[in-house]
TrEMBL record:
Keywords: Kelch repeat, Repeat, Signal. This is 15545_t:CDS:1. The lineage of its organism: Eukaryota, Fungi, Fungi incertae sedis, Mucoromycota, Glomeromycotina. InterPro entries: Kelch-typ_b-propeller (IPR015915). Residues 1-19 form the signal peptide.
Amino acid sequence: MSILIVLWFLIQLLNNVNCQNVLFKPTQRYGHSSTFIDGKLYILSGRDDAGAARIGKEFFFIDFSVPFNTQNVLSYDLSSINVVPSHVSAATVKGGANNKTLIFYGGIPYINNKVAMSLVYAFDTQTNSWAPKITSDNLIRKGSLTGIVDDNGKAYLFGGIFVEKTSFNDMLILDTINLSWKIGNSSNAPSPRNAYGATLLSNHLIIYLDLTNYEWYIPKISGTIPGTRYWHQANVIGKYMVISF
Ligand SMILES: *[C@@H]1O[C@H](CO)[C@@H](O)[C@H](O)[C@H]1NC(C)=O
Ligand SMILES: *[C@@H]1O[C@H](CO)[C@@H](O)[C@H](O)[C@H]1NC(C)=O
Ligand SMILES: *[C@@H]1O[C@H](CO)[C@@H](O)[C@H](O)[C@H]1NC(C)=O
């Protein structure tokens, strides 16, 4: 093979690496969002105890669609195309018309809410591109809440907190396909809270909101009930709701 052909291959290889799949070594953070789409976990912003102006701008994904080693996960940097200002505690879900779009709501910008930050962003993981600026109704910005998306692409955003204000117990409902908002009926809603865990059951209940007729209720629970906590995660595995940390 001539040296020119070898060079051409090398240049192509470098180009591919430069385009998007730049390997990346993420550092510890908190207050970031993580969204699992198509075998990839997308991690956006957050901060560390050093203040972390750098971490706030980071956007990367970890590819779990290929065999991986927990000591050495493959992360790919998308920070150069990130358009979301540095923030913590946003809510994200997988949605959109292709059901492979990262839909982002709220979050608390680093600098006292003085940063121009949209309420909603959408990142199409098929084309690796952000949707043009999304303007939303005059809804309040909130953080420290958990986004739950149902089978129809509707994102349920309960409670949360706004900078220096007390918690909420309202339910915002964002249709991630046509990006229209609704407000859920607050009758019997849980008391105001943030940093809670929530998960969707296969029978269309968010623990514990019945989505079929949109009705809050308190389930009957037996056994030893664990103490209250915050900043945990809730997931459903088989018939169990698993609370971690
Ligand atoms: C999106 O994909 C999930 C599975 O990953 C599926 O359960 C859900 O019904 C899909 N939603 C839409 C709106 O197609
Ligand atoms: C968006 O879709 C929902 C059904 O999911 C419908 O009720 C609503 O009217 C639509 N809104 C717009 C602005 O198209
Ligand atoms: C809200 O839900 C309650 C209880 O289910 C019901 O009585 C009330 O009519 C609902 N309000 C609206 C505006 O739908």
